[in-house]
Amino acid sequence: MARIKILVIDDEKLIGWSFKKEFDNKYFEVTTAESGEEGIKLFEKDFHDIVFLDNRLPGIQGLDVLKKLKQLRDDVYIIFMTAYGSIETAVEAMKMGAYEYINKPFNHDEIRILLQGIKDKIQLVHEVQLLCRDKPMDLTFNHIIGTSPSIRQAIQLAKRIATSKATTVLLLGESGTGKDIFASAIHNQSTRKDRPFVPINCATLPENLLESELFGHERGAFTGAHKMKKGLLEIADGGTVFLNEIGELPLNTQSKLLTVLEYKTFRRVGGNEDINVDVRIIAATNRDLEKAVKEGKFRLDLLYRLKVFQIELPPLRERREDIPLLIDHFVKFLAKKFGKDIKGVTRESLQLLEHYDWPGNVRELINVLERAVILENSEYIQLDSLPFELKEIPPPAKINDVENWLEIPEDGFSLYQVEKKIIELVLKKAGYNKSKAAKLLGITRDTLRYKIKKYKLL
Length: 458
Hints:
Elements: E1 4-9, H1 13-23, E2 28-33, H2 36-45, E3 50-54, H3 62-72, E4 77-82, H4 87-95, E5 100-103, H5 108-132, H6 149-162, E6 168-172, H7 179-188, E7 197-201, H8 207-215, E8 216-217, E9 229-230, H9 232-235, E10 240-244, H10 251-263, E11 265-266, E12 275-276, E13 280-285, H11 289-294, H12 300-306, E14 310-312, H13 323-337, E15 344-345, H14 347-355, H15 361-375, E16 380-381, H16 402-405, H17 415-429, H18 434-441, H19 445-455
Parallel strand pairs: 1-2, 1-3, 3-4, 4-5, 6-13, 6-14, 7-10, 10-13, 15-16
Antiparallel strand pairs: 8-9, 11-12
């Protein structure tokens, strides 16, 4: 958490000096003013969280200063100080919004207890603000379904990174592959798990609002900025910030993010003061960032900084052995959710679901199963309950005698080489007509294009 700012407004220099000596530390930052006018100017320039305000001041008096400060920022904690034991004035200050009042002379232990209580309240407010946002599910690696080598390898790497001191993680994968689940799981298995997990989608906010969300802003930084606002980086201090769709981050914001990653500091929009934070940044994208760098849309230095720890999440079509497990899990979950007595899917439905290429990955599978569970009236999901687009691709012809067309050498072979060779042969047979080749292979045209690019065939 960033240091809490204290403003002491008192014409007695000794009071200001003693506050600085006793309480200016790693938790609090103390600024002093010797008049109400000076205090208001300092508060307008850099809003403070706590104000110790004397009643008797040269010029504008304490109650008038209190009124002005509350107009500028209603959530400021104002402690009203009086050396004259005037209960009437103290009660009036409380009615006007003062948090507490204390009588002079006071001791440092009294102030220390008061500050600790306010510090706890400020921290609680920050956490409530995060909970009021789209609260991330309390997900762990146990929520990731699959036994295929590719997904297990991704999980093992993510677990090692989670418990490390790495402050940057880059998740790569197509839409729907579970990048958000991995991000939450990494946070929940880290030493930061008791601090905030803050997700933000870089693609859904315009540049000016995105910067304000991330870094916060000072009062008057732009039209509508009537009050100072702390950004998510500042609120998430000690925790994790999940930057989804980081490939959509504007170049100007990329530069500021790089500063955060390298120096652990940033400035609020319209601000002049460096703010120190300790956060882990988990970034995710379905874009080719290296291509974006070549197109001038992404900073190369930021890419290098992000990809120190990189995890690639496999698409569902490349871990088809996990499809039955996913179907079984989500059918049971959805049946319970919608109050349906559905035990699973028929053999024909399973074959169709296993054969489909799932361009939307696990998220698309969940949506298809949710629709099917709602529509189905029997114990098992029938073909009629599955959407039409799944049935458009006919299953490939069955090969009854594999040994007649495929000879396995004693030393074995690479599956990568076999798939590449088969696609080469089919493309040649189809006269390099992609639609015809996709039909012969029993896959979609999009999948064929992906594999052609993967194996650099055309």
